[in-house]
Structures are given as structure tokens and as C-alpha cells.
Amino acid sequence: IQAACAIASFIHNGKYDKGGKPYILHPLWVSEQIRQSGGSYEEIIVGLLHDTIEDSELTIKELSEWFSQDIVKAIECISFRCEGFEKETRKEYIKRVRSNRMAKTVKLVDLKHNMDVSRLSFCDDFSDEERIKIHKKLEQYKNEYTYLLNHTIRH
Q: What's the Cα-to-Cα distance from 24 to each of 48, 74, 134, rounded to whole Å?
């Protein structure tokens, strides 16, 4: 967990979310929610690292030098347009997330946090165009959350 926290902190250093807060607070929140709900240490690690592949030059291969195959596979599944999946649609991505129990668990928590509009503290400063874009993104997150929640993984 310490290694995952260090990697996430390094990758997200100096980055901020749309609300102006340090981006690292998002993966920390996701992993803490997983911990509080009784998640495994593997799920906590995936929560910490879930945006690292999308947001940096870090590769799946590099992560495999630090973490188990199960953790790395979950991170690969939760990373949109990662290595080998560069041309996938959002729908294909969500189906891929659904195929991995750990990825699905983390993505549900991630989407829950992404849908929290209280994170957008300066919403009054957004233009109408930005508000429409945010509304569309929230609808997308809601649809993905509902899809993941209502489709169980069959082994």
C-alpha cells in the first residue's frame, strides 16, 4: 500500500481537479472508501493507482514489477484506452471494467466520487458551455454506474 501511495503521489504531484484541489485527494478518497467498506488490500492498491496509467507515461509492464498479476490486471481493466486498448469506445471500456471484479469494485467508488458535484466548489464561475459539458459527463457517469451496479460478473 505504501508503494502504491508513493507512486500515485508522484504521478499526480502538481495536478489539480476541476474544483482546484490537489488531484491526489481523489485516489486517496477512493482507496479510503474501499478500506472503510472492508475492501481487500489489493482493492485499496487499485483504488490508489486507478488513474496512474491514464494520467502519465507509467506502463502496465512497469506496474507489474511492483504489484501482483491480479492487481495489475485490475488496473489495466480500469484504465481507459491503455496499452492494447487505444481505440476502444467508452462502452467497450465499461464492459472491460465489468469483466474484472476488482476493477468493477474500484470503478463504482470512482464514479461515485466523480458524480459528487460538491467537489466543484467554484461552479458559479463556469460558463454555460462548461455547465452543459459537466452535465453530460455526470449523465455518462450515472449511466456507467447503473450499468456496473446492475450487471454481475459471471465466472
A: 9, 20, 21
